[in-house]
Amino acid sequence: MFSVVIPLYNKELSITNTVQSVLDQTCQDFEIVIINDGSTDNSIKAVEAINDSRIRLIHQENQGVSAARNCGIKEAKFEWIAFLDGDDLWEPNHLEEITKMMNLYPKEKVFVTSFVYSDNRPMFKHLRATPIFKIENYFKEALKESLMWTSIVVVNKECFEKVGGFNEKLNRGEDLELWHRLAKKFKIIKSNYNTAIYRIDAENRSDQRFKLEESSVFYFDFNNTASVDEELYIKKQIHNVLHALIRRYDIKSFFLLFRKYWPHISLLKIIRP
After folding, report:
1. CA–CA separation, 217 vs 174, rounded Å?
2. Do 190 and 125 lie in a common domain?
3. What digits encode the pLDDT tens for the residues 72-115?
4. Do the bridges between strand 2-8 and strand 30-37 make them parallel or antiparallel, or are there none, so unpaired?
5. Which segments of the chain have a pLDDT < 70?
6. Exposure letters 211-236 (e unless 16+ CB within 10 A, then b)
7. Cα separation of 106 and 189, whole Å?
8. Measured distance CA(75)–CA(155) in Å, rounded
């Protein structure tokens, strides 16, 4: 039923536990599609040491995480694509919770649970009448809450035919950019149950590297927004990045981004995003 797509690049210390968290699922109806994106460490040996016929290991030259995920989508045998990064973990009930959500909303195509950070940092959640619900206004609610993150998202394969896959030009915010497109076309079903762990201390995390021209925040188009909430959502992302650039003393990138969006920018929100 599920094709679990795992992009892999130099995660030899993490990938065994990540794959095992899939194998330990209470729902066992899945395949695991691991895309080796040109790893140069012992990641492949770690995968090959796991004995399970549901694992398929596909190799490609290093093209980035977006290309690896897109390859996994293309190679998937099942209609439901579940994403998991090579250093994160699922709780045993992750796919079971997704299945429960699908049964409650059989006509919907995008499902997402909730997650915790490995350092137990506090996270904001909107109060809901039920633990599983339909997000009525993604952009409004995403202003305060982290609604979607790659390792908790499950998408029907036909959705990618309508909105496209991950943007392979990007190495930062490529997931948010895809969620943005999905949210404009499909309703998103959300569960407040935490079923995954974001391991912030894992090796070789992509968020340790940043190039503005390869970031989704550099390509926003205010002329293509469909609502005030979508515009506010975009502005918040810009302000957050500008704030981060100031903190890391990346003055060149700061002024490049500021100049690009200056009519939409609030200096106060850069200081306190």
Report:
1. 9
2. yes
3. 999 999 999 999 999 999 999 999 999 999 999 999 999 999 99
4. parallel
5. 202-209
6. ebebbbbbebeeeebeeebbeebbbb
7. 10
8. 15
Q: Is the separation of the CB atoms in 40 and 12 below 8 Å?
A: no
The overall average pLDDT reported for the chain is 94
191-214 tens-digit pLDDT: 999 999 999 876 665 544 678 999
> What is the C-alpha separation between 137 and 204, in angstroms, rounded?
34
Q: Do 222 and 172 have their domain in common? A: no
Q: Are residues 176 and 107 part of one domain?
A: yes
Whole domain around residue 142: which residue ranges? 2-206
Decide: 109 and 159 in contact? Cβ < 8 Å: yes
Alpha helices (H) along 105-248: 138-141, 157-163, 174-185, 228-247
Give the global pTM. Answer: 0.93
In a shared domain, residues 151 and 90: yes
At residue 273, the pLDDT reads 74
Supply angle C-alpha 67, 73, 78, rounded to 5: 165
Q: Please state, in angstroms and rounded to a whole number, the distance separating the CA atoms of residues 73 and 82.
A: 9
Residue 110: which residues within 8 A CB-CB, separation 6 or more?
153, 154, 155, 156, 159, 182, 186, 187, 188, 189
Rg (Cα) of the chain, in Å, rounded? 19
- Tell me the residue type at 34: I
Question: In the chain, which ranges are continuous DSSP H helix?
Answer: 15-23, 43-48, 65-75, 94-104, 138-141, 157-163, 174-185, 228-247, 251-261, 267-271
Residue type, 197: I
Q: Please give the structure tokens belonging to residue 171.
A: 């190495």
